[in-house]
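In the previous chapter we treated chains in isolation. Here, by contrast, the input contains two separate entities that must be folded as one system, with a combined length of 526 residues.
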Amino acid sequence: MPDIIEGPPEADAPPRPLARRLAWFIGLALAGMAATGAVAYSLRALLGLE
Amino acid sequence: MDFDALLLSRIQFAFTIAFHIIFPSFTIGLASYLAVLEGLWLTTRNETFKTLYLFWVKVFAISFGMGVVSGVVMSYQLGTNWSVFSAVAGPVIGPLFAFEVLAAFFLEASFLGVMLFGWKKVGPGLHFASTVLVAFGTLTSAFWIISANSWMQSPSGFAGTVEEGLVAVDWLQVIFSPTFPERLAHMVLAAYLTTALVVAAASAYRLLRDATEPESAMALKMAIGMLAIVAPLQLLVGDLSGKDVLKHQPAKLAAIEAFWETRTEQPFHIAAWPDREIEGNHWELSIPKIGSLITAGSTEAEVQGLTAFAPEDRPPVFIVFWAFRLMVGLGLAMIALGFWGAWLAWRGRIARSPAFLRACVAMGPAGFVAVIAGWVVAEVGRQPYVIYGILRTEDAVSPIGAGSVSASLLAFLVVYGIVFSVGALYILRMLAEGPLAGAHEAPPTEDRPPGWALGAAPENPGGPEDPAKPAPREDR
């Protein structure tokens, strides 16, 4: 099974375009925040809180 | 002993928080360690740092997850089991917890995703920024939690009474209560020591099997460097924190030192058997006059004993006295281990001393034990109050039945026993395998759709399946 934790790019790999890297950076950060929020609201719903 | 809702709620909180503190006390230090490893890899391009990063980030991810799960339980418990405390102190202490979630936890949770899944996607610079932000998030988290707890130890900047509720009148005084700076420094250093001991133990374990493994040797040197510097520093910061206790919580200090009489030239009890019933110690092994010197800075200083406080205002002495000695004893052992390791590193023999490596493995859990012992001193020593001098613990509990608390306590015991045992065993297995396990495996091959241009090429050129490779001669 492939390792889900991503390692660094190869030393000789050309860098990706900055816009694409920034888009991934913001996208992953928002996804992490959304996942945390989803878990929090699920717990609130589970406990029947308003 | 009557197992009522109060005692059961206290047992439940003690159990869940003792379990929880294991994880943040490890991840605070580990996040900073990861930032250092990645920074060193970026500046030196030494593959050892990259291998160590990729190994310890897996341990961090699992520990972080378990810390989150066990931490969520704590916050809900404040509402379910300690609703009077929440109602009375919520307007003051609630925003500190909210800031912890908003400013720290979301910072960690957001950028952990980039750390784990985005190194190739975002590039080395932005990835390093994410690692630093996660490390900063863990420290910010410690800031707010210690701020809230310090306010409970030495409340300031508020108005009102228990009956009408407390409100903040000066937020700076609430956040930076008198004991806060020293307690924050003490906890952060404790977290760094805990991480250094785990890294040292895991690396030493690997080196006992293969003394030539460069990654483990490097990690051990880094951990020992941290121990040699931070462990003595922790002793000084702990002393400053103790001086705060003398000033703001004299009954707790008397319990820590098993002082019963108020007097000058207090002895220092190395060991004793304190007993609240006889208001004294059954036996004691003491050094004369040193108790006043250590706690108040002079042998002539008068230090209050427990009999200066009403019996109902005294904390449990036996637990506090021995928890403190366990913490300090382990701290001294950490200093000794750090100096021993530094001496061996100076002689170039750190990875080839079996006695030292075994000592490192034995000391692996010492940081966790010392942290829990320290929190026992802080929390049991604050009794019989939940907010020192303001709200008694017995008045802070929710109006719920013992049956409800028993049921939830039993559920916690079972669920924690299963979930965290599995998690801890997985981490221990990973640590035993070491940083090189899987580090040199070939990258996964992509699926090859029909019609792909290189579909006919061998997956492993030159390997045994390569038809272009000459077959081995059987006549050799």
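Chain A touches chain B through 25 residues (CB under 8 Å). The first helix of chain A runs from residue 18 to 46. Compare these points with the single-chain example from earlier in the chapter.
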